[in-house]
Design goal:
Ubiquitin Conjugating Enzyme; alpha+beta; four-stranded antiparallel beta sheet; VPS37 C-terminal domain-containing protein; Mod_r; about 55% helix; about 350 residues; transport
């Protein structure tokens, strides 16, 4: 199967009545109906309170497929999915931790931080990363996956530490062999030559399988860091633009706040020079003005000069002003009595 990506729409809530169950179902349905993943995806029998899926995809025509295990806990989508690389069973890659879980991903790091990332977008991001930089298979026996809570904490810890250049705690280093059969079977003359010839000794060490694995692992980490750096640099212009917009908005906010302060000062200045009786007379006049205007609107509507939509809008606004001013007058008169 040739791997191809299309635009994947996120599963947005359908109105105010959408529940967590609806959002969870939307995530799963979007994933199961995806053009690339639908044929190679199956649900694994498990606890009915959780969902476990396996999906396989090939990076190119005729190539060995990759297999991912997607675990959705009962609290999904409040908690992010746990996605494990099952095939190849033991491999090294920049986005994979020691439990073969995919962790160094923007979609998982930002899950629940306000972004509307969907399940299928996270899987697409994993697939793209594996295709662009294939994982390096390493011999060994896969261990039993940890519990969901342990896996979730491990994934978060690995994601938080992914930006540290020298942090290697999330990368499983292959163990140093306890025996070297090739050396043990080597004639004494050959061993003496290796001890006395720096070039021959260095060449022999570099061609050892365990050393080659370390070199490949180092190259994989370097490539992963380079890719992450390029992604960050690619967003530099976007972040700069957002910062510029924020600065403009700050200036505009200060200007509007200054205008508002001036209006408040002007209003206080007018009110400070008036007695309570004068203020009451002004509000009473404004109330009568609102009543007259509402009566004029009613007359115009009855004469056919106003459409019902314009009449309803303007009449309701004016009657609201009338009742607000009448309530203020009543409150001011009550305060004067007491």
């Amino acid at each position: 199967m040739v791997f191809g990506f299309g635009s994947s729409s996120r599963p947005p809530p359908n109105g105010n009545t959408t529940t967590t169950v609806d959002i969870r179902a939307a995530h799963v349905q979007k994933f199961l109906s995806h053009a690339t993943f639908s044929r190679g995806t199956k649900q694994v029998p498990t606890d009915p309170s959780a969902n476990l899926y396996e999906t396989s995809f090939a990076p190119s025509q005729g190539a060995d497929p990759y297999t991912l295990q997607i675990y959705l806990s009962p609290s999904f989508p409040s908690q992010p999915p746990i996605i494990t690389l099952l095939k190849p069973a033991i491999a090294r890659h920049a986005i994979i931790n020691e439990n073969m879980q995919c962790v160094r991903l923007n979609g998982l790091v930002n899950w629940g931080s306000g972004s509307a990332v969907s399940l299928v977008e996270v899987i697409e991001e994993i697939a793209q990363s594996l295709i662009q930089q294939p994982p390096t298979p390493v011999g060994g026996t896969p261990t039993k996956p940890p519990s969901y809570d342990t896996a979730l904490e491990t994934a978060r810890r690995s994601s938080r530490s992914s930006s540290a250049e020298n942090d290697m705690t999330h990368i499983p280093i292959p163990p140093v062999p306890s025996k070297f059969p090739d050396l043990e079977a080597m004639p004494e003359s050959a061993i003496t030559r290796l001890l006395n010839d720096d070039v021959a000794r260095a060449t022999y060490v570099e061609n050892m399988a365990c050393v080659k694995t370390i070199i490949e692992l180092k190259a994989s980490i370097s490539d992963g860091n380079l890719e992450a750096a390029k992604l960050n640099l690619g967003r530099e212009e976007e972040i700069g633009g957002l910062q510029a917009e924020a600065r403009v908005m700050q200036v505009e906010l200060k200007e509007e706040a200054a205008k508002f302060d001036d209006i408040v000062k002007e209003a206080r200045g007018v009110l400070d020079g008036l007695s309570e009786r004068e203020v009451l007379d002004l509000v009473t006049s404004a109330k009568m003005d609102a009543e007259e205007k509402s009566d004029d609107l009613s007359s115009s509507f009855q004469d056919g000069d106003l459409k019902i939509g314009d009449f309803t809008k303007n009449y309701m606004e004016m009657r609201q002003k009338y009742h607000e001013r009448a309530a203020k007058i009543e409150r001011m008169e009550r305060q004067q009595r007491y």
